[in-house]
What does this fold into?
Amino acid sequence: MAHDHWENCVAHFDAQVDVFAKEYFSQADVHCLLVAAAGFDPRSIGIATLLAGHLGDRLSGLFVREERGTPDAGLVTLADQNAEQLRALVPGCEIAAVDIFGNDNAPVAGARIASVIRDYDIADETTDIVLDMTALSIGVAFPAARLLLDHCERRGIAFHIMIASNPELDDAIASEPADRPMAVRGFAGTDHSDAALEISRIWVPQLAKGRSAALTAIGRSIRDTYKICPVVPFPARDPRRADALIAEYGTQLIDEWQVDPRDLVYVSESNPLDCYRTLSTLTKRYADAVDQIFVPSIILSPVGSRVMAAGALMAAIEHDLPVQYIETVRYDFDPAKPAVTAAPDMRVHLLLSGPAYSELDAPPAATNWPSAPKTFGDEPA
Amino acid sequence: MANPFLRRATEYIRDDTTFLEIVSPAPLTTFLAEHPRKADIFDLPIRVVGAPGSGKTMLAMLAEFRLVEMILRDPTNDTNKQLSVALAGAGFLDDGKPAVAAVRIPMESEYRDFWELPYEDSVKTKLALWLVQARTMLGLLRGLTNGDHRRLDEIRFIARDASEAQLEQIGGLTAAGIRDRALEVQRAIYSIGASLLPPDIDKLPKAATDPYQPFECIQEIDIPWMGGRLTIKPLAILDDVHALHPDQFEQIFTALARREIKFGRWLMMRLDALSPGAVFRSARSVATHNLKPDRDYVDIFMQGGESRDKERRRFRDMAADMADRYLPRVTAFRNRNLPPFRRLVPDEPPRLSEAKMRELEALIDRDQRRFDVTPARRATIEELVAGYLAGTQSGDREREVSLAMVRVLMARYANRVSDQQVSLFEDFDPEPRTPLKANAAVAEAARLHLQALSGRALHYGFDALCDASNENAELFLQLAGALVARMETQAIRGRVLALPANAQQDVLRAKAAEIMDGWAFPFARHVRAMVDGIAADCREVSLLPHARLGAGANAVGVLEEEMGKLLLANDELALILKYAVAHGAIEVTRNYGQGSKDWCLIELSGVVALSHGLTLRRGGFLERDTDYLREKGA
It folds into this structure.
């Protein structure tokens, strides 16, 4: 489905999010399903608290607990506490455990979350689905977003993405990458096997603190890249964050990836639409530039901030771009560190589909589709 | 400016010409040309097993037909000549013409994803196997038509005897028919694998479920070559098959091991794909139902396949060859007449300054008094040391080594006479019951002590660099790259490029610490804590004045019986050890007999030894147990 309306996507930031939530979700005919993480991340309950305050018993919840082998005991306790709070906020919610790794330690999150969402019975009266990407990993959030967006578009209901972003907190959460880079399930991109022309790949990794080993492994798995265009956050809450990342990735940028400094992509740390529009423009211009010469292929690796990842998600869905990532085996996080509480969360709301766009889209959003399926199992693959 | 040594992975090299300039043909010669089953490597399934960075992908890329053709079409180029000789030795060329058309198929995680589909195992295996075959055929045709050297209609496939009935399913024997059918299969199966919600089994596309077995049908390929015709053997190199689920691998491997198949097939895999038990047994025991190594398939081990001394010697040659190819590509060296890399990291021993030498002499004199060694006994010991140094082949026979050896022997003397009764009326200078001996172990201990006492360099020279790399090409390039970066600075300042021993050690130690800081693999934090703990204990014991472990310790030994139980148990420590081995933090020697006991040695890797100032010589270990490992890795 085309997403031309994303050029004028409805978005709210920080205090505007509260205003929007109050005005929109307080309406009595809004019934909302919240899909979010039930993990150790202290931001896990922020969006749920906001929505529960306005929706009350009109809010249902599907919370995903990402299970990763043998996690730190302290983090398990934090996750348990968050799960309890979510249960209290959204009575009757479902907390689904999703194995991130199979019994051979291969990442299987995409297939497992797809199965969880397919089997979840979304109530008929649901008018809105909110995906809270704050604490979901890419391997779970991206497939979930694609499935839920598809479902909402088929049924003509609204699909929102909400994020409570905190780059300083992200930096304080250390992660241990697994050893198998792979495409995110459902984001393998277009099959170019029958292309008569040579494929010319551009890899667009999102630089993030402490993720150099993960990005190096991802880069090696892609092979034969024509160019590598790293994404750095600018403007950002810390104006030197991009500089710090470039310094941290010095060896990769200069020796391994041999990045031309003109190829750095700057996107806003707080506005996912900036990332989306920049990647969309890059995709279109690159396609025009190599038309009839090469088959263009742009591969995304949004391993850092969820706000930028949300923009990458939109670009990946819009242009069918492959998303290559590496799963995290375990996290290390000390909630007592000063950085964790120093800076407030930046909140973002995006409305990706729904009746609000019916006048922009042609044909209008299919609110009255006679055969709109009610569950994922009814939908064609 | 980019340092080519630090561009670790061949995957980042964007054009074939650059790749050929830097690729070393040594792995072809070492692992293939000299393999005892060389005659069978294109007939039987071959498993090539190695650690990350051991050069598997480089080997596979070099063998691809596209590159072989590029090498053969420009025989005047010196690099190409060397590569041709190596390719011919490994059987890829016959009489200067290609004998094999190889194609490398990266077995990305996409294939593993098929194992998550909600179908029966046999269906999932079939889909993955057919996708591999379809991609192999497409890759093969792309390689054969690369550079417009031949048209598709000039390529003919030759079927295996008695496979006529299967020809229709692969699209016939014409290249166009085979390509079209392969495309159809690939598209159909890709759409299933890439979907978020897979179709029900009865809704699978027909193109994905109809039989498709080109490996079983095709025996050879007939192509035009330099004005004539040439018959070549196809070879599929499946890279990184460790990404498959073990059961999936088992089924695919069994299918590929069918004797009817005349299509060459190699499976490149990493060590850490195996179970902890298998990793500790150097991968010889990957479970294979009803298949016997050497009868049904052949293993090629890129490490641990032969004696350690032989491996070390072989790796030094390969590393020297690689370094000499990379060196001229460093921009700062382009206008210089470069000697071989080996001469830029000389073995010339370091010398202590006069002030440090005086300090050392004073220390030895103090220790002589501390150990109650008479002047006469010291003179005897000095004679022993002088006698050893006069006859040794070692290049490091500096005076400070001699002094430190004397210190070690004085401490040993004191230990050996400590239980003898002291006389009240004459000098106490008894003969020890076990006579003192000056040997290479004492000399090495002396050098280690000198590093701690006077800051004298311990790790320097090309051989030490290679030994610290643990026979891992990628690690060698990283360490050598750090040395080259220092040489670049020398070049820019107009100084000699060769680095003195102390500078080499400084660079290597800093790089080793950086590599360890950058470890990012499963359980890396535990592995780091464990090796740091072991290294600290080894260093403490190594620096005891009497150097009871000779050259020093860089390992701990756990009784085999205990280790065997651990590897069979579902224990996190087993996983930590597995990843430590697979990512080069430790090495394991099984069934090491000492003191009438059977030990499993957990040896610290070269990088850890560099970082902690331990000897690179093998053999010295501390006796410990699994609880110790658990405690250190916590």
In short: The first helix of chain B runs from residue 16 to 22. Chain B touches chain A through 47 residues (CB under 8 Å).
